[in-house]
């Protein structure tokens, strides 16, 4: 009978230890899940910020390309202008080439 009591007591101690450890694992799991959720939220915010910056950059690149085209047209006109002025001058002077 004493052996059965000892075994019963031992089982109770093991069950209590199991319960304690299970509770600790559950608390640790909840803590880690909260941390994962917080990191996921931060990651979503970061992705949204990067997406917004990417859209803004694309918009600015298009604007820059348009301004570059305008400047190229002005440059072409300015490069051609001396020839036009020379032609007008020659025509006014009455000189033939």
Mean pLDDT: 88
Query: Describe the biggest sheet?
Result: none
Number of separate strands: 0
Global Rg: 41 Å
Q: Any overview of this molecule?
A:
95% of the residues lie in helices and 0% in strands. With 97 residues, the protein is mostly helical. The longest helix has 92 residues, at 2-93. The chain is rod-shaped and about 130 Å long.
Outline of the structure:
The protein contains 1 helix and no strands. With 97 residues, it is mainly alpha-helical.
Chart the SSEs and their pairings.
Layout: H1 2-93
How would you describe this structure in keywords?
rod-shaped; mainly alpha; 97 residues; 0% strand; single chain
């Amino acid at each position: 009978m004493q052996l059965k009591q000892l075994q019963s007591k031992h089982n109770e101690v093991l069950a209590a230890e199991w319960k304690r450890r299970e509770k600790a694992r559950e608390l640790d799991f909840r803590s880690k899940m909260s941390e994962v959720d917080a990191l996921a939220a931060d990651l979503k915010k970061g992705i949204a910020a990067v997406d917004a910056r990417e859209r803004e950059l694309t918009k600015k690149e298009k604007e820059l390309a348009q301004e570059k085209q305008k400047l190229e047209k002005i440059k072409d006109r300015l490069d051609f202008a001396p020839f036009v002025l020379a032609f007008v001058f020659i025509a006014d002077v009455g000189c033939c080439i």
